[in-house]
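Lab notebook, bench 4. We co-purified these components, and the gel suggests they stay together. Before we commit to crystallization screens, I want a quick structural picture of the whole thing.
Request: model the full complex, all chains together.
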Amino acid sequence: MAKKRLLVDMDGVLADVYAQFIAYEFEASGTRFKREDVVGIDEVQAFPNGKKHVYQKGFFRTIPVMNDAVDVMKQLSAKYEIFIVSAAMEFPNSLFEKYEWLDEHFPFIHWKHRVFCGDKSVIQGDILIDDHFKNLDYFSGKTYLFTQPHNSNADPKAHERVANWKNIAEKLLG
Amino acid sequence: MAKKRLLVDMDGVLADVYAQFIAYEFEASGTRFKREDVVGIDEVQAFPNGKKHVYQKGFFRTIPVMNDAVDVMKQLSAKYEIFIVSAAMEFPNSLFEKYEWLDEHFPFIHWKHRVFCGDKSVIQGDILIDDHFKNLDYFSGKTYLFTQPHNSNADPKAHERVANWKNIAEKLLG
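Here is the predicted assembly.
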């Protein structure tokens, strides 16, 4: 039987973009944000200098990897056909940085299985893990909402919530 | 009624990649190839220095636009929801160059409607215009094979052939 096709988002799922915003904001303004300070607000808007930082060279290249993401992705690779799907087109400077970031942290995901797009409604698959409703709501397969501060107090609606990569392992490798 | 979703390939459809290979080859070796010299051979393989040139800075940024592509794409935009879908992941250096190329020649196609991927089987839509069987064969919608030297003597199989952008206008704007 063909493996199910699993689509995995980058920022806020594989890449800990909040850790990066917090570090850049501290460096820029001396203010140390906590994740609970920015609940319910879009990531880029939530930080005073967020809109500037996403255009800064190196921002996307040096984002920390989400806890357990590498180990769980390796295990998932045996069971699923994985595609990494990132809405990278909004920040064209991020394209090459994201490619290099994937080479560093997820070299076992071949370039054929990487997608940089704008609107994810053009992507098809069996399962999608993403932290944004705008991506999950238009997907025809099974959807998982990865908990991040911007969505943590929202009704998950038709989507199943996952809190972290250990949680994904329980649900998808069980 | 919702507009049909039309997916359009870049190299060999919007971008005249053969013109670029011929120009680069002449510059490198003094040999002036004609399109009829390279019929039936994969583009990159067909030119002695092709495999080197695709990694050269500026190669993708300066490819000439295919005749009539801009005018016809503008007209198609009124009738279809267009996505430009390029297998850009094979040449990571091309990512930003392709983005800038689209900004220059097709600024009316928003970044939300641009996709850079590896394997196009992850992309869905109603119509696909592409010059490669490997992309058309796995597409579930209507397919058009754009004639290029590498495919010009091949059986179009289940795909409908289009010879150029005027021909696309006749078929899709009629």
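Chain A touches chain B through 27 residues (CB under 8 Å). Worth comparing against the SEC data before the next meeting. Residues 157 and 172 of chain A are 20 Å apart (CA to CA).
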